[in-house]
Each structure stands twice: as structure tokens, then as C-alpha cells.
Amino acid sequence: MVACERCGAQSPSGFRFCGTCGAPLPEAPAPLRQTRKIVTALFCDVTGSTALGEELDPEVLRGVMNRYFAVIRGSIERHGGTVEKFIGDAVMAVFGIPVVREDDALRAVRAAWEIRGRLPEVAREVGVTLRFRTGVNTGPVLMSEGENYATGDAVNVAARLEQAAAPGEIVLGEETLRLVRDAVTVRPLERLELKGKSAPVQAFRLESVDPWAPGVARHFDAAMVGRERELRLLRESWDRVVRESGCHLFTLLGMAGVGKSRLVTELIAGLGGEPHVLRGRCLAYGEGITFWPLVEALTPVGDPARGVIERLRVGGAAIPEELFLEVRRLLQSLSAERPVVLYIDDLQWAETMLLDLLDHVIDLSRGSPILVLCIARPELLEDRPGWGGGKLNAQTVLLEPLGAQESLLLLDQLGNGPGLQARDRIVAASEGNPLFLEEMVALTRETGTVQVPATIHALLAARLERLGSEERALLERGAVEGEVFHRLTVKALADDRLACQLDTRLAGLVRRELIRPHPAMLAGDEAFRFRHVLVRDAAYDALPKSERAELHKRFAEWLEESGADLPELDEIIGWHLEQTDRYRRELGQAIDAGLARRAAQRLYAGARRAADRGDRPAAAGLLGHAMALVVNDAHLHAKLAVELAGVLVETEEVERIEELLAAAERDDALEATAALVRFEWAMRVRPHEAMAMAESRLPGIVEEFARRDDARGLARAHFAWGLAQNLLGRCARCAEHSTLAAEYEYRAGDEGLRARALSWWVSALYHGMANAETVRAAI
Fold first, then answer.
1. What is the DSSP string of 173-221?
2. Per DSSP, what are the bridge partners of residue 374?
3. What is the DSSP string of 703-757?
4. How far, in whole angstroms, is CA 149 from its chain's centroid?
5. Helices (H) and strands (E) in the chain, counts
């Protein structure tokens, strides 16, 4: 409600004029923007104050307490903390509000240690000795801009640690210790049973603090590997590709930010002969985004790649080998003009189908000058332990952190570096990680001072906080889309205030080297890429979960209207709606059954396409996520269960298939579909039994699908029937059922199964009574 300044009458918020006197109403203040931060909370409480109150006059006691609290406040503020409030005899302070610093945890610990050291001086001054106990803990909180009030489990745990401390003790939480471990000595405590915590909490008693040591020391005593060796190996691999006109796989492994992308950029910049350089990246989200990297890599090729790109956009060929062959032939054709570098980024996030396709290209393109250059984090080998193994034309290299000299050289190459003392601090803080080093130099240029980060998250969070609130909000909205985001996406998710200077603010973010221009995937749009995925993560992590949920929903709805050009659109929309449902559940909000159903149906559509192109792992993953969304929708849950069972018939997960079919069979409308899946399963594990079932079960299944006018069900049933006839050597009947399957799939609009049915029809004609001329005429 808004009060009229003329007559005082209350009017609902949003009204422009008073309903009583008609006077213009004052504009309601904009709601405070909320954000999530990693902060360190400090609780300090006096012990024995009740007994002291019996001994001292209230005015004397008030003076003593005020003097102690003045010293405590001074120490906290001197180390950059904010006193949030006094609670009785306790002080609560937060380090990280209003501004996050990368060394907030260390500042809090040093403040606590300083307070304890100054208390004897205060005791001598006032003639009364007070003993304090202190708890310090680090973690995420939610706060509103312009306020010092923070809420979150990290604050609650800090209070509980203080209560568990003995008089005079300082107790640290586990996360705080991780950030200050090289500046302190501690003694582990027995795991504490804290009120409100479901499990015991590890805590540590602070024994001493080195006032000069960094929270996390930078150690360069271990042997470091420079970049010359890896660059030489890359060049040798390329020279071999060109010299021998052969295909070679080079996989570069390393942790995030260690310099993999920079090394590849240096290689490509030095290549002669103007090779085709095709770059694609695997997305960290959205299971089933199987061929996105190839679509991105091939888009700049233009007309020669248009047909393959369209096949990739709609899910590829029905038989995976057909799509593999098309991609390989395109790459071989390009390599006939000049050598090709197929550069795939973030391969640790690749779908199995993409890895199989790359294997196909590598194994069968021996006579074509193609370098398949993949960069990935070491997790790739956990999911695909055999990647590159056993291939004579493959090489895998692990990229280690830079040595101190290499870090100094990189810093010099950045230009306009800081002074000598600052250079040494930046090199020490980077730990040989080029990302850390580059970001610290950029931050130093902005602020004029060197601030040593405790972690990369803290570094990036501190840098983002130096942006204006509008620029941060734009980054956060871009982060909802992903590492690469589009201008129109940000505009759709921004309010009028943000959208009015959108281009100017995006240009400012480019100048700050937080984002860079990137080829757009949406026609008529511009795209930007976060300079590092960790920048994207830092921006996204700052969003409250409630805001994330709303933005994911709005983005999905915008894609439904504007994203028709994106490949595998259903999977992307389904994933974003799933995130909305997930965050609402985590916040304990009422479940939107309609939204969950929409998400499940989108994921289901993507799963069907994945299954039709033979990508069963992707289909199974999408169906599993869809089922989790609609556990309270019995019919849809059962429908998804029977679809998942159908996808899993080629696996050995017998118990899971049986469980899924049992759930589907409880739904009368799905009984025929479940029976068909049981037949398909029997065809794989008990073919002789399935042959006997074919004539007795399939006619009834077909009749039920026909009664419901279920074209897709009829297509599947006739396709399975045709396979059974083929196993019995009845080619003519196989061709008959395959023809019916193709016709029904045409009605259903499912090209995947239709193509497979037609291939079996041709095979049946060829191996049956028809001659080659008949087959050609039929085709």
C-alpha cells in the first residue's frame, strides 16, 4: 500500500493516483536487490556476565561492557569487518558485507585473535576482567544490497561454535580453516553436536596466528613443467598430420584455468597454410545436447556443411553410423582443400555419442590431414578411461601449472604490469595458474592495489562486486543461459531499467575482459562468451535461488517463442524448466504441477529423438530426469517408465526394466505398450520364446493400438513384428510389416523409426523373392 501525501489515504501499490482525492501518488521504492555471498561470520560472547551483575552497580557494569565492546568493534572494523548487531552480551560481525574480499576468512581470524590479545589491557584499564568465547565460520548467506543483515546456515553455525567454545577459546569452522590453514595453528576438537545440525560438525581450537602469513601459502618447491614441451608436442603432432596426410588425436588435459585454451591458441596462431580451424565446445548442462559442439564447429564452414548441420539439428540419422559417415566425409572433404583442426573444448562434458563419433572420425580418416584437438579436465578419464588408449595415432598430455619464471614471463606479456613488489605477490598468489594470474592483474589495474585471493571463487566474486549493480545484473542474466549467452536473451530477462542501456553496458563488460564477442547461434542476434566459465559460475552463484528459479522459467518461455533455430530445443527448454522446479522444491515452495509436467514433456520429446538416433544413454538420462519431475502424476510417470524400459531393453538392467514395466502395467492405458516392450525385451534375451509369442501376442497389441488410433504404437508393433518374421526367415511378411511400420511412423511424424523400418523393408525385399530390379523400382 502507498499513502497519499495530500489526504493520507492508502492506495494499492502500483496505483499512480489516489483513489480518494486524485492526487499523484509517490512512487513506491524499488525492492532491495538480494544476492548470495560467501562471507565469514564472527560471534563473540562474554562469559559469566550474570554473576558479575550481582557484584557491580548497573552503571558501572554498563561502563565496563561499553569499553569492552568498543575495543571489540574497533578490532573488527580495523580488519574490514562489519558489526551487524549486539545481542545481549554477544557481538555478531560479518566479513564480506558490504564488499566481498578474497581474504575475508583470514581477516576475521586475525580480528578474533587481536580481540583476545587486547582484552587483558582492557581489564587493567577498567579493573574488571571479562572472558570471551568466539566462533568463526565461513559459508554462503543471503543478503539485501544496502543492508548489513545476512541470513544463512553459516551464520547459525558460527553462533553454535561460539556457544561450544570454552571461556577464552576461539573455535573455527572447517571451511574457515581451509582458507587460513597456512596462517594458523589449530587443534582439532571432538566433533560437535550442534543444535539444528543433523550431523556432528568438525571444529578446531585456534592456537596461534601468524600476522604476516597468507591464508593459503603458494609453494613452488615442487618440480614444475613449462609450456615449451607441450607446445613442441602439439606442433610435432600437427607437422605429422600435414606431412603424412593422416588423422591424429591430441588430448590436452588439465585443471580449470591452468592454460589449456591459451596453449591451443598459441598453436593455432602459429600454423602455416591457413588450415580450416573448426571449434566447438561441450556444454556442462543439458543432458542430451549431444551434437552441439559439432553444430558450433561446422557453422562457420557455410554452404558445404549446411546439410550435415541440419541433420545434427534435428537429431541426425536414424542409424548412428549414417550420421558418423556424413560428418567424417565432410571433414575429409574440407581436409582435401587444406588441413583441418577440429578443436573440441571441455570434452569432459561430452555425451557418449559424441565421443563415439570422434572415435569413428579418428579411426577411419587415416588418409586425411585432420588434427582432432581435444581439451578437457582430468575427469574425462574417469568417465571414459579408454579415451585415446590403444590408438597409434593418438597422444594425451597433462598440462601442469606454470613455474615461477613462466608466470613472470606471462605477466610481462600481459603488458602494463604492476610494480616489482606487486608482481612478486601476484605470481605467488596465482600458484602457476594462468587464470588466477590474469584475473589478479586485471583486478590490480582496476583498483590500483594487489589483493591476494584465498580461492578463485573469492577472487572472481570480489571482481564482480566492483561492477555497478546493473552490470552485475546483466552478467547474472547471461549466466542463466550459460557460458555463451545472447544479447536478446539478456534483454528478455532484464527489466526496463537494465534494457535501456544494454549495448553500452555489454560493451563495458567486454572492455573489462569479463566477456568477449562470440558467434551467435540465433539468427539476427549477437552472442557473448564469458572470458572463463568460472566467471560465469561466480555470477550465477550470486543469484538467490528464488531469482534463479524465476529467470530459468522466463528464459524457457522466451525460448519457446524465439529459439526455433537452436538445435535440440526441447532438451534445453526442459532443462531450464527443471531448474525452476528444482530450486522451488529446495526453497520449500508449492510445487507447480503444470510447470513440472511441461518440463517432463520437453525432456520426453528430446529423449524420443535421442532414442530414434540410437543415442540410448542420452535418452535414458532425459527420461530419468523427466520421471523425477512427475512422481505425483501417476499416468505420465507410468508413461515415462514404459518409455525408459523400452530404451533399456538393450542393457543388462533386468531388475530395473521389470520394475519400470510393473509400474506401467498398473495403468490400463499403457498395458499394450508395456506388453510390446516385454516382447521387444524377449526378442533380445529369449528370442526363441519371443518367436512363439509373436503370433499369439502381437495381433492383440496391434488391435489395441488401432482401437486407440495410436500411430506411433502401431509403428513400433509392426516394426517388432517384422523383425520377428525376419528371424523366422519370412522375408515377405517382414517386408509387409516393415512397410506398415514406415507408413504409421510417417503419420506419427517420427522419421527415426521410419528410416529403420524402410531399411528392413529393403533388406527383406533383397533377401526374399524380389530381384534387384524390383528393389530399385520400389525405392
1. EHHHHHHHTTTEEEEEPPPB--TT-SS-B-EEEEEEE-TTS-SS-----
2. 251, 344
3. HHHHHTT-HHHHHHHHHHHHHHHHHTT-HHHHHHHHHHHHHHHHHHT-HHHHHHH
4. 29
5. 33, 18
Residue 447 pLDDT more than 80?
A: no
The burial of 515, by beta-carbon neighbours within 10 Å (0-12 exposed, 13-18 middle, 19 or more buried), is given as buried
| 584 has a pLDDT exceeding 90 | yes
Give the helix/strand (H/E) hosting 385. Answer: none
What angle is formed at CA 374 by the lines to CA 370 and CA 377, rounded to 5 degrees? 170
Read off the pLDDT of residues 606-633 as tens digits, 9 standing for 90 and up. 998 888 777 888 888 999 999 999 988 8
Global pTM reads: 0.67
- With CA atoms as reference, report the closest residue to 680 among 721, 641, 652, 729: 721
Contact 606, 570 (CB under 8 A): yes
CB 592 within 8 A of CB 629: no
Share of the chain above pLDDT 90, in %: 26
- Three-state SS sequence of 417-468: CCCHHHHHHHHHHHCCCHHHHHHHHHHHHHHCCCCCCCCHHHHHHHHHHCCC
CB contact set of 307 (below 8 Å; sequence gap of 6+): 326
Contact 375, 250 (CB under 8 A): no
pLDDT of residue 757: 55
- Cβ atoms 756, 320 nearer than 8 A: no
Q: For residues 184 and 163, what is the distance between their CA atoms, to the nearest angstrom?
A: 22
Angstrom distance (rounded) from CA 427 to CA 441: 10
| ∠ Cα 392 397 401 (to 5°) | 175
| Cell numbers that stand for 145 in this block | 544490497
The pLDDT value given to residue 629: 94
Tens of pLDDT, residue by residue over 664-705, are 888 888 888 888 888 777 777 777 777 777 777 778 887 888
Q: Find the farthest-apart pair of alpha carbons in the chain and give their distance in angstroms, rounded.
A: 114
* Alpha-carbon span 119 to 69, nearest angstrom: 10
Supply the pLDDT for residue 518.
93
For 29, phi then psi, to 5°, come to -65, 145
Choose the most confident range, by mean pLDDT, from 412-416, 588-592, 679-683.
588-592
d(CA 410, CA 441): 11
Could you tell me the CA-to-CA distances from 431 to 177, 201, 428, 437, 442 in Å, in that order? 19, 30, 6, 8, 17
pLDDT digits (tens, 9 = 90+) for 244-254: 889 999 999 98
* Terminal-to-terminal C-alpha distance of the chain: 73
pLDDT recorded at residue 415: 65
d(CA 67, CA 49): 14
Question: Within 13 Å of residue 622, how many CA atoms lie on the same side as its CB?
Answer: 34
- In angstroms, rounded to a whole number, what is the distance separating the alpha carbons of residues 131 and 49? 9
Predicted confidence at residue 536, as pLDDT, reads 85
Max mean pLDDT range (206-215, 530-539, 680-689, 743-752) = 206-215
